[in-house]
Structures are given as C-alpha cells and as structure tokens.
UniProtKB/TrEMBL annotation:
This is phosphoserine phosphatase. It comes from Kribbella rubisoli. Pathway: Amino-acid biosynthesis; L-serine biosynthesis; L-serine from 3-phospho-D-glycerate: step 3/3. Residues 20-98 form the ACT domain. GO terms for molecular function: L-phosphoserine phosphatase activity; magnesium ion binding. InterPro entries: ACT-like_dom_sf (IPR045865), ACT_dom (IPR002912), HAD-like_SerB (IPR050582), HAD-like_sf (IPR036412), HAD_sf (IPR023214), PSP (IPR004469), PSP_ACT (IPR049148). The active site is at 192 (nucleophile), 194 (proton donor). Its cofactor is Mg(2+). Its EC number is 3.1.3.3. The lineage of its organism: Bacteria, Bacillati, Actinomycetota, Actinomycetes, Propionibacteriales. CDD domains: HAD_PSP. It is an enzyme of class 3 (hydrolase). It catalyses: O-phospho-D-serine + H2O = D-serine + phosphate; O-phospho-L-serine + H2O = L-serine + phosphate. One of its GO terms (biological process) is L-serine biosynthetic process. Keywords: Amino-acid biosynthesis, Hydrolase, Magnesium, Metal-binding, Serine biosynthesis.
Amino acid sequence: MTDPTEVELETAAAERPTLLVTLTGTDRPGLTSAVLSTLATRGLEVIDAEQVVLRGRLVLGVLLSAPRDHKDLKDELKALATLLDVDISVKKGVGDNEPRRKGRSQVTVIGHPLSAAGLAAVAGRIADTGANIDRISRMARYPVTAMEIAVSGADPETLRTVLALEGVRQGLDVAVQDGGLYRRAKRLIVMDVDSTLIQGEVIEMLAEHAGRLDEVAAVTEKAMRGELDFEESLRHRVAALEGLSATALDEVYAAIELAPGARTLVRTLKRLGYQFAIVSGGFSQITDQLAAELGIDYAKANELEIVDGVLTGRVVGEIVDRAGKATALREFAGRSGTPLTQTVAIGDGANDLDMLAVAGLGVAFNAKPVVRAAADTHLSVPYLDTILYLLGITREEVEVADAETPA
C-alpha cells in the first residue's frame, strides 16, 4: 500500500464535513472558554478560529470537523447561548476555508480623520480590481486613524495605482505593499534629515543668521522640486554663508525641532532590532549630533569648511547629492548586513528619488509632487511614526512597550 499523495490528502480534506460555530454577544471573560469547553466534550478537531472585539461586542468563529450527532450538539450550544445570554449559530458545510487567491497585498489606509465615505471608496476600488478583502484591523486611533486591510486576488502594482488615485480623491494616505514575508523582514531605515527627520531646512536656518534667508530659500525650493542641479544649488547656497561664525551651527542645532513622532519611530524600531541611518544633503556638523542624540547607527552628510572659527562658504570633499544618497543607502545596507529588499528609505525632495528607488520600500514623507509620484507610497500627515503602521506595528503595541520600558 502506498501513502496518499498531497493532492489526494487535499481532496479528502476539501470533501469532509465541517461545522462553523459563530458566537456574537457582549464580551466578558469566560465566553470563549465556555464555547470551546462544550465543543471539547465531542473530541472535535479545530480547523480554524478567529475572534474580534469591537466596542465590547464579541464575534467568535470556530470551524470544526463535523460530529455525527450534529443536531445534538446544536441543541447543546443553543442551551449554552441562553445560559450565557449570547447568540450562537451552527452551520454545517464541507471543507476548510477557501485559500486566499494569488496576489496578496497589505493595504494601509491613514486618515485624519478617516471617514466612512473614504473607507467605503477604498473598499469599492479594491472590489473594482476583482480583489477580495480578507481581513481589516485597526493599527491606530490617534492622532490619526489607521486601518490595515489584507487583500487577495489582484496584482499589487495594479492595486497600488488604483488606490493611489482614490486616496488623493478622498484625502487619505493609502499604501500598498506585497503581502509576503519580506514585508515583515524590513531591518534598516534610512532617512533624509531636513524636512523629514527634522522640521525645516538647516541651510535656511544658517542663512537667516547670515542675513541671506530669502535668497537661499528660493534656491532650496527649486532644488527640492528637481528644477536645479543639486550640487550646483548647494554650492551656491553655501557660498552665501561665507564669513558666518561657526558658533551659528551650535545655535541652529539648539533650535532644531524634530518631526512629530520621530523619537517614537526610532525608539520603537530600535527595540525591535532595526538599524537606523540618516543621509543628508545638509551638513555633518548637524547630522553627527543628531545621530548621537537619537542613537542612530550611521550618518552621512556634506561637511562645511571652517577656518579659524568661520565658515568659508565651501564644502569639503565629495558632495552628497541624489546619486550620493543612493550610494550611501547601499553602503549602510552592506555594513549592517541587510539585503536591499529589507531596507526602508524615507525622504521628501527630488534629491531623495534614487534612494527611494533603491530601497525595498520607498516612502515619500510630506513630499514634493515629483517625489510622491515616484515613491512606493507617500504619507501626508505630519507624524513620522506613522511609518510604524506600514511595518505592521500598532499604536497599542507602541504604548504597551513604552509603559513597560519608559524612554
């Protein structure tokens, strides 16, 4: 006698009788235990189970191998439902749950607020692609509302295109990622600094000290939109700082404000073993201090030339430009032993485009239109820690970790 093949086993499993038991009612301790204890007396096999609680309302579903005395069990569960003051339904069928269709994606929807109309529109566009929503769960309720939707049956790229357009119409951030294992394997975060990790642009803060703010800010804006060569624009702006005392760097650093949620993002992911890097078209005199303060592993930026305590209006060494940022990401990945597929890059300007393209996940954070259009996904809320929701980490998990190990 030969052993049954895998196909034969799957066929037999698909044809065997099964029973779906569903409980709904006001949640309280002991309900799930009571139902399972009743089922346990029959020696049944649990094939699948799922439970959710929404505002104190419990929904429990258990899929089991069907007993011969199906009607007797149904009567027993009916009596239990009366005793517990809940509703229990029993439905006989055949086989396991249908497997998810190919083309699995994780869709993250972020709103501030998230309206029912907006979520309905996203669900509608998912349906239009022929995909199915397998599960919805909440990632955060404040300061933004974030939902994660498991979707199957559509090409992720098609879904990303359709939902990006709908997100713009609804005023929502919608991110689509492949639903495979690699989403959970991200291990290196590489961030831009100016207008990403921190609020504002360091070179403009320095220019204000030099009395050249308007001139420098105009050039910065054009460079970030991709209208000027970055290296040329940087050298032009740095030249405006000639003669400025180096003490202005300390004053600027003291005035820097981190993006909301920046400390939470770094603290949470460091707890999980992530490594962090910052790469900037700004200046090492600032970024090195930020890295030390936040516990960031790697940093790369341009270096201002200082002679006799005064800025010369020049930079030292090779310029960290658009291509340089991508090169830095590869370097950081190599030093940390992280495959590029397991990296996340975050930025806002045109000089971040190559870095975002190289990373496993490129996130445009409050970015210029050219960057939003090119990145894997974009976020338009001001909270940097919303990146956590893209990685499958909930606000509740963050708060629990902070309570257990205060920063």
